[in-house]
Design brief:
Number of helices: 9
CATH superfamily of the domain at 2-12 and 70-112 and 129-199: HAD superfamily/HAD-like
Strand content: 15-25%
CATH class of the domain at 2-12 and 70-112 and 129-199: Alpha Beta
CATH topology of the domain at 2-12 and 70-112 and 129-199: Rossmann fold
Helix content: 40-55%
Largest sheet: 7 strands, mixed
Distance between the termini: 11 Å
Structural class: alpha/beta
Strand order of the largest sheet: 4-3-2-1-5-6-7
């Protein structure tokens, strides 16, 4: 029995923080897990920038409302879900992800949550568990599932390397160079074929 575990941003939807950096005119917010492997450090840094500019949840949600899934993402996900269980495992937050899940046809997502003050300021964040992607695939394996995983960033490597099959998707040259043994794909058709093959 297989479960395919997918990253969200960069794989199925554009990077939320990059979109918000462009919308808000704050280029520093373009930094993502492709650049910074330490997610805790990255998020604390982001929250500091939001506070400095007086920006809160509403401003980010206004940007997210305009984001559409990457071209072909929903079709890929629909086809994938026709032959295997799929869980999206993301380090994003439920307050960001919900409108995007609607556009993707409500797939299952495991993510984190933001701590938000009454005035809309994001005061902190609550991670579901430590090393959430790796911890989740290990937990799925412990209840009898084989996992197949794909993602694009440093924080996806734990689940990719510890699954029966794991693939990079639209990753960076630096990550591909550091992990030459991992198959890397750029197109949904290629990833779909690789997942099907891994299940046989």
């Amino acid at each position: 029995m297989y479960i395919t575990c997918l990253d969200l941003e960069g794989v199925l939807v554009p990077e939320i923080w990059i979109a918000f950096a462009e919308a808000s005119g704050i280029p520093e917010l373009k930094r993502t897990t492709r650049d910074e492997p330490d997610y805790d450090k990255l998020m604390k840094w982001r929250l500091g920038i939001l506070k400095e500019h007086g920006l809160g949840l509403k401003e980010i949600q206004d940007t997210i409302a305009k984001i559409d899934p990457l071209p072909g993402a929903k079709k890929f996900l629909d086809e994938l879900r026709s032959f295997t269980q799929v869980i999206i495992i993301s380090d994003t937050f439920s307050q960001f992800a919900t409108p995007l899940m609607e556009k993707l046809g409500w797939p299952t997502i495991f993510c984190n949550s933001l701590e938000v003050a009454d005035n809309g300021e994001i005061t902190g964040f609550k991670m579901r568990c430590e090393k959430s992607k790796l911890t989740t695939v290990k937990a799925l394996q412990s209840i009898g599932y084989e996992t197949i995983a794909s993602g694009d960033s440093y924080n996806d490597l734990g689940m990719i390397l510890n699954s029966k099959a794991g693939f990079l998707f639209r990753s960076t040259d630096a990550i591909k160079k550091d992990y030459p043994d991992l198959k890397a794909y750029e197109e949904y058709d290629e990833l779909l074929a690789a997942i099907k093959e891994a299940m046989n």
